[in-house]
Amino acid sequence: MSNVDPTAMADGELVRPNLQRQLLEGRAIKNNILTILTWIIATLAAVPLVSVIYMLLVRGGTRLFGADFVEVLTALPPAGFEMGGGIGPAILGTLTMVGIATVISVPFGIMAAIYLAILGPSSKLATTSRFLAKVLTGFPSILAGVFVYAVLVVHFGYSPWAGGVALAVLMLPTVVLAAEEAIAQVPQRMKDAAFGIGCTRTQVIWKVVLPTGLPGILTGVMLAIAGAAGESAPLLFTALFSNYFIENLSIDNNPTASLSILIYNFSGMPFENQIELAWTASLVLVLIVLVFNILARLFGQPKV
To answer: Which of 32, 93, 294, 296 would bridge 257 by S-S if both were Cys, CB 3.0 to 4.6 A apart?
Structure first.
């Protein structure tokens, strides 16, 4: 290997290499073309999103950000030719069922991730479970509703618990895979240091692994919640719909409203008032999903 001085001598004078970017250089031309194409594709991809958000703000923002703001968020949905009303039961029902799904899926998902990443990462059970979790990420949501319908609804009737279980089935694989990846990213030297000072495996998991991987775990949880909040198909089979607030959290025959089903029901009605509320509910649902996505990005930021 020859040592070549980047600064050459020409006629006794020091000649420095030209480090300025040449616009007509081949690599520069390719870079400019690809940069322009990337911006064009990104702009075209953003057009549908921007148009949908614009329509939601124009059609749904009229009621949501108007004088009847409190009524829209708290009142019961109108019936028939009634004017006014709101989407209060649907908001409460959505938050309740997503909360139930979170309470069910997060603990089981994190425990499964601990086994997959630490306790038995190479076992046959871990390999099979990891494969099934990846398959479930593409699982049609309506099939989750049919499954819970056969297990719970047939015996106990429609309820927020059945809706929450259906959403938990959809959330679980996202939580498992995200938590496993976050736990696997914990540096091995931190775990070795904990074992070196006499910590048990349980202490290493609780005191080192989970706190260190918490940002990644929370990111997966937030993304799973955001996805579950917008689901409608499984709720048709499990929670059905109701124009009233949840009376109790009984598992026995207590249909529950949700934003996605309210949008589905009201968007097909011939009444302008209900159609406006459907647009308003769509905007509220988008804002809820947006909040969880922002939280996921915030929790996923690396600590410096």
So the answer is: 93
Q: Is the pTM of this model over 0.85?
A: no
123 within some domain: yes
- Give the pLDDT confidence score for residue 1 in this predicted structure: 47
Helix then strand then coil, in percent of the chain rounded to 5, is 70, 0, 30
- What's the structural domain count of the chain? 1
From CA 68, how far away is CA 72, in angstroms rounded? 6
The CATH number linked to 109 is 1.10.3720.10
What is the pLDDT averaged over residues 60-84? 85
One-letter amino acid of 68? D
How far is Cα 221 from Cα 199, in angstroms, rounded to an integer? 28
Q: Tokens for 82?
A: 């009634």
Tens of pLDDT along 31-44?
889 999 999 999 99
Helix axes 88-114, 210-229, angle to 10 degrees: 140
Q: Tell me the C-alpha distance between 174 and 105, whole Å.
A: 10
Domain for residue 98, yes or no?
A: yes
What is residue 164's predicted lDDT score, i.e. its pLDDT?
A: 95
Query: What is the DSSP code (8-state) at residue 187?
Result: -
- State both tokens at 3: 């040592």
Residue 8's DSSP bridge partners are: 15
| Residue 10: strand, helix, or coil | strand
Has residue 152 got a pLDDT over 80?
A: yes
Q: Classify the phi-psi angles of 240: left when phi > 0, otherwise alpha if psi is within -120 to 50, otherwise beta.
A: left
Give the whole-angstrom CA distance, residue 233 versus residue 166.
10
Q: Which residue reads 């302008």 in tokens?
A: 272
**How far apart (Å, rounded) are the C-alpha atoms in residues 34 and 278?**
42
Report if residue 19 sits inside a domain. no
What is the secondary structure of 98-150 as a DSSP string? HHHHHHHHHHHHHHHHHIIIII-TTSHHHHHHHHHHHHHTT--HHHHHHHHII
Q: Give the per-residue pLDDT at 18.
A: 60
